[in-house]
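Journal club side-thread
Mid-discussion, someone asked how the predicted structure for our own chain would compare to the paper's figures. Pasting it here so we can look after the session.
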Amino acid sequence: MQRRVLAMLALALLLAAVPTAAQAKGASAANISGGGPGGLPGGPIDIKGDGEPGSGTDLADLADAAGMWALLFEDGQPGNLDSAPVPAATRGPRYTITWTFPNGSGTADKVRQSVWPYAAGGPITYLAAGQKVLDTRTEGGWFRAADNLRRSLITLGLPARPALTAKAPAPAAPAPAPAAAPAPSPAVWPWVAAGLGLLVVAAAVALARRRSPGGVGAS
C-alpha cells in the first residue's frame, strides 16, 4: 500500500514538472512567405524549434523582434499601435509570418502576422484581430520594431536591402503675385479723350486772348 502511494506521488510530481503544450506560450514553428510578385527567391522560409519567450533560439528571438509577445500577451505595451505608423507608400514589400502554436489538443493554431521589414523609420508588423491562439483570440494591432528585425530576416533569407527613406514634404506653393490694377474699361476712354480735348481747347483760347490786342497782358 505504501509503495502504491509513493508511486502515485512520484507520477504526480513528474506530470507537474513537465509542461504541456497547452501551457506553453511559445510557437513551435514559423513560415515566412510573400514579398510581392514571385515571392522569395528561394521560396518560403521554415523555422522550427523551441519558441518559448526567453529561450534564446532563432524562433523565439524572431517572435520577440516582430512584437508577437507585445501583441499577444502584453496588450497596451509600448509599440502596440492602433494605426499604421507610416503610410503605405513608404512601407516597401510585405511578408507574412505564419506562426504555429501547439494547443494541447493534438492540433495547432495558425496565427498570421504581416511584416514590412524595409519600412521607412524601421520595420513594422501587423497582427489581425480575431485569430484563434491557445485558449484565446488575438486582439490585433500594429507594432514598430527595431532594425534588428530587418537584419534577422535578411540572415534567414530575405533580400539584403536597406530600409526605405521617408519622402520629404512637398515645398510650399509660392505666394501669388499681387494683382495689377485693372485697366480702365473701354467705355471710359471716350470720356477721357473728350475731357483732354476740352482742356486743350481751353488752353488754346486762353493763349489766343493773351496775344490778341486788347487782351489780357497786352502792352
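Post-session note: The chain is about 30% helix and 20% strand.
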